[in-house]
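wait is this the right file?? whatever heres the structure
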């Protein structure tokens, strides 16, 4: 099996809590969906930290400025 260099370990307390909730037999469908949504949002934030941004010039109603 090929090793992957792009592995991201998410060691977040809310993810740990929600994974526990996913594993519980007492968890109902709505709780399960809500937990998966929260986990997905945290993962999205964590992996987006690695995104490369490029600077761009924009014009606002007040002045020209830079953004990403």
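ok assuming it is, sequence goes like this
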């Amino acid at each position: 099996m090929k090793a992957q260099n792009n592995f991201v370990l998410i060691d977040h307390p809310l993810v740990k809590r929600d994974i526990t909730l996913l594993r519980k037999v007492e968890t109902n469908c709505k709780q399960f969906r809500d937990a998966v949504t929260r986990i997905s949002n945290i993962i999205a934030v964590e992996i987006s930290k690695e995104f490369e941004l490029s600077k761009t010039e924009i014009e606002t109603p007040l002045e020209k400025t830079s953004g990403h």
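The CA atoms of residues 8 and 50 lie 10 Å apart. so i think its the right one actually
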